[in-house]
Input
Amino acid sequence: MNLSKDTTNGVLVLTPDSERIDAASAIYLKDQFRDATAQVDGRVIIDLAGVNFMDSSGLGAMVSALKLLKGRKLELSGLTPVVEKVFKLTRMDQVFIIHSDLNSALSGTGADAA
Amino acid sequence: MQHEGSITPEKRDQPETLHQSYSFRCKTGGDGIRKLLANVTRTIDANHPRAEQLSHNTQIVLAEALNNIEEHGYRGIAGGQIKLKLELHKDAVVVETVDFGNAMPGLELPMKVLPDADVDCADLPEGGFGWFLIHTLAPNPEYKRRGRSNILRVKILDLGE
Output
């Protein structure tokens, strides 16, 4: 699994190229997230619109990514139904800033859009 | 002899249309479990009229259950056999898995415990969600150790959002 990087108006947008973030791909996500965000101190969004499945290992990788930001918020956009359900059931939707899609994430200020 | 990760779905004839049963098998390692999940999902989507939530919930429950068998039952060793029976009922999907890995510690399933999210960021849980998800979407999962096999039976409900 790869995370592609794009910067729009100073906001770093990361997009996983895998449809599934599961036990097999979770470890790559954490490593690539660390590399991608090492020199960044602005907003960070992971766009999950292309991810149709996430298991608890994937969820754990998202939490470990959040921790790498050391107190800053991690924003997520475009959660598909199964992914959204996993976040809601575990109440992890409350520890990320979640946007319905990338456009609204980029047009909002981040904190307000949550 | 099947090669690693192969799956053989076979439909068994049942008199009632909404009481169908399907059998699958796979081996741990490679993308065996991923393929098995894809086949189970496809089977539900094609054969159950209320497929959407049931299919989503089954994917979540089975991914956790099968990962657990691979990582803990077989301790990450490839080639471990998993048999899976899928039953489609009117309001539920019942799945029974059989594996020949290590027994559940204490011969019991882990309890339904949601890791605490109301903590400092640095202390947030990075795991421990799997059995919570299983218990939530498939209440009262049953586990039996029979001989050298583990049998897990879950009834996944149509819990929508």
